[in-house]
Write a structure and sequence with these properties.
The chain is mostly beta strands. It is built from one helix and ten strands.
Length: 143
């Protein structure tokens, strides 16, 4: 908010402009990159540490269908309703075929979870920037 840390700096007649969280995500599986775009312009790229998705080529278009936090106790929480979401492991679930964006852990190599795995810091950042409904394009290997 351009240095605005507290609301006592807003005065009548001032405008508070918030950017909509309108980002597009492009995942390039062969290059192990997740790129964040806004209005066609590249904002930032993130390294995929691991990808577990279908074999073959082509593209997949989807949207983020759900955002949840996984607790150490094994439960899950919503970002809207629970304060414990802040300390939970973030998971963004695509609404197509159960693919997920999530933090990579040692146990993920053996798990059956399908999706795209990033560092903890990267998924924390993405969980703040992305919302349910953001468009996702996945590019698999060329045939």
């Amino acid at each position: 908010m351009n240095g605005l840390q507290r609301m006592d700096k807003l005065f009548p007649g001032d405008e508070l402009v918030l950017l909509p969280l309108n980002f597009n995500i492009k995942i390039d599986v062969p290059r192990k990159l997740l790129s964040l775009y806004r209005e066609g312009r590249l904002l930032k790229s993130y390294e995929l540490l691991h990808a577990k998705a279908r074999e073959g080529g082509g593209e997949l278009r989807s949207k983020i269908g759900q955002k949840i936090g996984l607790l150490a106790s094994g439960g899950s929480v919503s970002p809207v309703k629970f304060e414990s979401y802040r300390n939970a492991r973030k998971v963004l679930i695509l609404d197509h075929r159960g693919l997920q964006l999530r933090e990579v852990t040692d146990s993920d190599q053996e798990e059956v979870s399908r999706g795209f795995f990033l560092s903890g810091a990267d998924i924390e950042e993405l969980a703040l920037l992305l919302r349910v409904g953001n468009e996702v394009e996945v590019r698999f290997a060329k045939r």
